Amino acid sequence: MSATIAGVVAVRVPERSWRSEVRAVKIVWRRELIRFAGDRIRMFTSLIQPLLFLFVLGSGLQTLAAASTDGVDLKTFMFPGVLLIAVVFSAMFSAASIAWDREFGFLREMMIAPVRRSSIVVGKCFGGATIAALQGAIVLALAGLVGVPYDPVLLLGLFGLMLLLAFTITAFGVMVALRVKQIQTFTVVMQMLVMPMYFLSGALFPVTGLPTWLEVLNRLNPLTYAVDPMRRLVFHHLDASETARQTLDAGVTWWGWHVPSPVEAGMVLLLGLVMLAIAIWQFNRTE
Amino acid sequence: MLFCRAVTPSQPPAIEVVDLAKSYGDVEAVRGVSFSVPPGEVFGFLGPNGAGKSTTINMLCTLARPTSGAACVGGYDITTQRDDVRRHIGLVFQDQTLDGHLTATQNLRMHAELYGIDPGVVAERMRQMLEMVDLWDRRDQQVLTFSGGMRRRLEVARGLLHSPRVLFLDEPTVGLDPQTRSSIWRYIRALQDTEGTTIFMTTHYMDEAEFCDRIAIMDRGELVVLDTPQALKASVAADRVVLGTADNDAALTALRERFGVDASMAEGAVTFHVEAGEAFVPRLFADLGVAITSVSVARPTLDDVFMRPPGSPIRDAETASATDRNRATLRALSGARR
Question: Quick one: closest CA in B to A119, which residue?
């Protein structure tokens, strides 16, 4: 073995610039996708829950609900809620990866690189959001089975809203994952927060005419403002009676004011950005 | 900043540390250490667990902020020029930091992207590093399928991928088989010769410490000794001579009376310490007057430096008495060097 390596290519690490930050965000994002593509089991298992809700719960309760939905299939009504659950759980799962990275040491490799910590967090959030939205898209592909038309505008709109929601939930998850010390804690915290939020969101029931305590909790729940615009979009493309619309898609109101969809979407985005900022701030303080 | 420029601009030290200290609450992990490492040196950092080695490394590679003091790595200040420091250092930790779900190539590619290496040379550099550590054939396999030795080799390849000026190795060979250990040393030496990389390493293996150009020993957050392995060995122990003789009692008496050497019996053989043992042995044959059946001369090793009494490690968390004994040895040693 010779003492030196012949013709070795010397490389130089350039000074930090916005370009190197973009490269860092891109590679962190790409790593999430590579890992997702290599994990077929996850792809399938994460579909089980939404499909159970949609076809088992939806079909099962249909007979009960038929009296009041005025011709609209309960599954059609539940469809936005099921998209929500697909996205939320997938995004949570993605966010957990930053805790796993810490557990397995890979986070250290990223933390020591000559890039901003924020680039790593942003890359993680984009990666998680992309994966979660893709998972949602698989469920979205089933739209026709539950009476939701394959209208390009509708599908695109729903996908956009899912992407937005996925980003916010991933940012939230990353923020929690950076704070907790153990993965088990992360799982417990998520279960404690996500299931109640999901049930309170109106994913599975109309949000008008609720008891006051439930209405207050519902209006305070961020997920409410993600599922409502999705449902409005679906009903906008449905051939439903006015009675059915009144019952099933009355929309979120604040003291009688009907909150417009763009405002709702804006709130979800704003919330996501705030979570992202907190996550970055936390990560920057980590030694 | 000013401090970093104060050194000769042509050839600044690879690492310059002045009064570096770090406290976690009331615990003083590092209590003001100072040293300097010239470019291209292999610098060994030794000491018992909990001595402050890892904290010092973490500060030097910008993972921890010093409480007080200053340090420059690769010519950059570790507190005010963190990004510049990071661009010029490579790290191999004792815990693995690879992504097991990615392939070897994907792990290196990720590193290249994070470090912003020119895409035109990445592929070639990756090939060279993977060939150097004999992983080229396994490049497209998931790291999960790799053995511990292969993973460590891949970590070394990655740590060197961006041509760092200083490579930090935190117990790089712990838990590896002897073949892997020696090949890791071969890679490090090869790269050091080719690219002039400075090596800063911690280790528990004394035979590895002997590869180092200089050794620093830390204990309780302080630097106790800093010297070449040869000087350290010379400072403590004389050569150990073990004799097999026809009449051990007569040999003991003769040694005392004719040579002024205080020998003792150990494991059935006459044993004593003497300086320049090889030159001493011929005199024994000429003047001892007792038939000699066997003789061996052992040079002091670094184990002799760090283990006193023989057989007990520098500091073992399990036994406090051993700890104090060894600490006393370290103190005595440092006193002797000053």
Answer: B114
CB-based contact A108 B128, cutoff 8 Å: no
Q: CB of A13 within 8 Å of any CB in chain B? A: yes
Interface pTM (ipTM) of the complex? 0.85
Per-residue pLDDT, A267: 93
pLDDT in tens, B88-145: 999 988 888 999 999 999 999 999 999 999 888 999 999 989 988 889 999 999 999 9
**Phi, psi for residue B279 in degrees, rounded to 5:** -75, -25
Partner-chain residue, chosen from B114, B122, B190, that has the shortest CB–CB distance to A4: B190
pLDDT digits (tens, 9 = 90+) for B273-282: 777 777 888 8
User: What is the DSSP code string of B306-327?
Assistant: H-SSTTS-S--TT-HHHHHHHH
Asked if omega into B309 is within 30° of 0 (cis), the reply is yes
Contact list, A109 vs chain B (CB under 8 Å): 97-98, 110-111, 114
Distance of CA B255 to the CA centre of its chain: 38
Closest residue on chain B to A104 (Cα)? B97
What is the SS3 assignment for A286?
Answer: coil
User: Helix B229-236 vs helix B320-337: angle between axes, to the nearest 10 degrees?
Assistant: 100
Q: In the beta sheet, which residues pair with residue B225? A: B217
| Residue in B88, B101, B128 closest to A5 by CB | B128
User: Under an 8 A CB cutoff, do B190 and A12 touch?
Assistant: no
Q: Do A5 and B99 touch (CB under 8 A)?
A: no
Instruction: Give B155's contacts (C-beta < 8 A, 6+ positions apart).
Output: B92, B93, B96, B97, B98, B172
Three-point CA angle B329, B330, B334, nearest 5° = 120
Q: How many residues are listed for chain B in this entry?
A: 338
Q: B107 near B152, Cβ under 8 Å?
A: no
The one-letter amino acid code at B156 reads: V
Cα(B14)–Cα(B162) distance, integer angstroms:
17
Mean pLDDT throughout B172-186? 81
Neighbours of A147 (CB within 10 A): 16
Tokens of A65: 């609900």
Find the mean pLDDT for residues A55-66.
82
User: Which is it for the CA torsion A207, A212, A216, A217, positive or negative?
Assistant: negative
B115:A12 CB<8 A = no
pTM reported for the whole predicted model: 0.80
Tokens 């990445």 belong to residue: B122
